Amino acid sequence: MDLETLLQLAASSLRLATPLLLACLAGLFSERAGIFDIGLEGKMLAAAFAAGAIAAVTGSAWVGLLAGIGASLALALLHGLASITLRGNQLISGVAINFLASGMTALVGQNWFGLGGQTPQLQASQRFLAIELPFVEALAPVPLIGPIYQHVVSGHNILVYVALLAVPFTWWVLYRTRFGLRLRAVGENPAAVDTAGISVVRLRYGAVLIAGVLCGIAGAYLSTGMSAGFVREMTAGKGFIALAALIFAKWRPWPALGACLLFGALEAVGIRYQAITLPGVGVVPVQLMQALPYILTVVILAGFVGKATPPRAGGRPYVKER
Amino acid sequence: MNPTLPRWADFALIPALNLLLAFFVAGLVVLFIGENPIAAMKILVVGSLGSSYGIGFTLYYATTFVFTGLSVAIAYHAGLFNIGSEGQAALGGIGVTLVCLAVPWPYWAVALPFAILGAGVFGAAWALIPGYLQAKRGSHVVITTIMFNFIASALVVYLLVNVLKAPGMAPETAGFPEGTHLPFMHEILGAFGIKVSKTPMNLASILALLAAFKTWVLIWRTRLGYEMRAFGHSEPAAVYAGIDPVKITVIAMLLSGAMAGMMALNVVMGFQHRLVLDYVAGAGFVGIAVSLMGRSHPVGVVLAAILFGILYQGGAELAFDMPKISRDMIVVIQALVILFTGALENLVRLPVTRLFLQLRRRPA
Questions:
Q1: How much is the pTM?
Q2: Which of these, B181, B173, B159, B200, lies nearest to B104 by C-alpha position?
Q3: Which residue among A96, A111, A243 sits closest to B339, beta carbon to beta carbon?
Q4: pLDDT over 70, % of chain A
Q5: What percent of chain B has pLDDT over 90?
Q6: Does A243 reach chain B within 8 Å, measured CB to CB?
Q7: If you count DSSP H runs as helices and E runs as strands, how many of each does chain B have, helices first?
Q8: What pLDDT, on a 0 to 100 scale, did the predictor assign at position A25?
Q9: What are the distances in angstroms from CA B205 to CA A155, B49, B66, B124?
Q10: Does B162 contact A at CB distance below 8 Å?
Q11: Of A81, A100, A237, Cβ closest to residue B332
């Protein structure tokens, strides 16, 4: 494998890791606040549809992005209503949201555009296009660093950089702000937070809505950044890979970046090489590559490679003492 | 379960109200896409129940959902939310296929016990690891079963493309020998002189009813079932009573997985007579809705499965007559049913409970 192939693979890993990363951070906010979120997939799908559809109609990727965030927020509110206000089962709510998004996007998509559930192909002006970072030309002659900067770091659309910047931002919010401290506390011991006179309900809604915004960006990236339009079921399990990455990262922001890049790289390699021959092992089927993130997650969950402990109050509705 | 509510309210009134809400919202969705919900309802009901052809298809679908619904219900009684029925059913399909293609079976009745074994063992095997990990390592069964669904789908694609594929383009196995085909219901009824339309409905429908009955016996009339329910209600109490949590968790998941695998009898052995790619087609997930709606009781599961059978068959007719309402409407209704009977249950339950408390207070 030469340098050029390696650089292409790295760039494509980064592009594929972006939606995972955004959804993973969304799950991180929600689950750190004690609300399990297996509806990441559905929120992303709804956002991808809304962004693709509205961008096609209005001709603006930015309006599309807003629509995507709006759609995702609506589902996030539903999840909040079910799991915070009505104290329902958070897992069942997530399952319902996934099906709702899957059915509604296909139904409404067919109804609006009549293209078998797709949205119209987006023009270049209606999408988020690759942008070139400054100093590419200046750095180009530098060996190794120049090409890496030019081909891997530069040349992605803006949402990729948004996702990357979201990692330190999440870290800062969670570990360096009062809101973050309370958010982590509400996921571990909501009763203590309540005793301190802070609203558990408001904190949890806040976390769920942040998750909605991030999933919205992730969905918009899929339909208006990575591809040119919405295709039915275009999330294709990415929400669950993000969930896997979240567990893999043990609910922490920086490891989340690592996990998402790893899973993105697995996908990139799987797309590029249909079958890989490992010396001594034989041919590795492409299906194994596709299943690898899930297998790795199960191994991590099993606690054989470091223990992944979820937030303590996760999944349990908080009932205020009377 | 809930001392403030009479049983009929808990098991009939609240599910009925939840269902009503779900269908009301579904009606709004139909209005939103510009069709008449009442006309749509009519087509749906006539298409699914208006002829022996429609009924046959409805019950064929319902049979599948009885198996997956029971699968989710069994685990639910032990306090486990098994989202993995989809993958377990996919593996059950592999099990049935291996049995059916193993030897040239002379007659279906000879092949059936082995096929049941194949479906059960393969389905259970796929639930074993999530169950074991939940019991021994505390890995959440919801997450592991989701992961196992994806692993199953990759595994089945691999097996169908590389190992079991019959010569030809499509990734499917060779057709099963005649001697494994379960008799169709129109053949069975024909033998008694009753003429009905040809439909995929087959002997597995009777097996599904048997399975529902056996599940009822298991859950409410055996020691194991008692232990499962006790464990599901309160883990510490069950452990205090000497119930082994590891044993109950693993056994509940094994039974749940085996039941999911049984759907292969209906679809693979009873109708398609070969294994095709993604033969489960979401039925495992429908099982979640069916189990929630049926309140995890076998009778409720059978009724809910028939309702979803109606939705599947009627929905196909609906998509034909009203092209604006594609088959995706079924997924929307499924989502709404899960939402209103599962996640938003308290939307109805809290006011109803309050009402009953008031009614009780007044005469006193």
A1: 0.89
A2: B181
A3: A96
A4: 96
A5: 67
A6: yes
A7: 17, 0
A8: 96
A9: 58, 17, 9, 21
A10: yes
A11: A100
